[in-house]
Amino acid sequence: MIIKQLSVFLEDRSGRLTDLTQILAEHEINITALSLAETADYGIVRMVVGKPGCAEEFLREAGFSVRLTDVVCVNMPDRPGALHEVLKILADNNINVDYMYAFSNKDVALGVIRAADIDQVIEVLQKNEMQLLRQSDIYQL
Asked: Are the C-beta atoms of 81 and 15 separated by less than 8 Å?
């Protein structure tokens, strides 16, 4: 149930995100989810991709600062209150969410969650019958 997320440090320079996506495109690596947080001087791209190990290698070779992080991806119905239900379960079990990003499309919503103890997140969500994506649901063969 653990999904590998790429965290990539980007200088605040025009075209740097385009460079990153070009490398992934050239190596036919699919981006499943992406979040970009920025400050005045730099940005951090967090991505779930189809081939995280390969993406890490290719991006490092191109001079990017990259880190792999364990996250969980929860599948929720696309309806009001669904995200609240997931977060309430985590809060009720004293799990602090470090960060998350989510999106919805055609009756399905997906949330990528990072917390200090990812195994506890998995255990608690499964115990509460939340559907978690597996690597095989995301990764490319």
From this structure: no
- Paired residues of 103 in beta bridges: 110
Domain residue extents for the chain: 3-67, 71-140
* Cα distance between residue 32 and residue 49, in whole Å: 5
**Quick one: tokens of 107?**
């009756």
Helix (H) or strand (E) holding 45: strand 42-49
**Domain 3-67 fold:** VC0802-like (3.30.2130)
CATH code, 71-140: 3.30.2130.10
* CA–centroid distance for 39 within its chain: 20
Cα 6 to chain centroid distance, Å, stands at: 7
Question: What are the structure tokens assigned to 4, written together?
Answer: 């590998």
The Cβ-side half-sphere exposure at 90, using a 13 Å CA radius, reads 24
Q: How far apart are the first and last CA of the chain?
A: 17
pLDDT tens digits, 30-84 = 999 999 988 777 889 999 999 999 999 999 999 999 999 999 999 999 999 999 9
pTM of the model as a whole: 0.88
Distance CA 21, CA 74 (A): 25
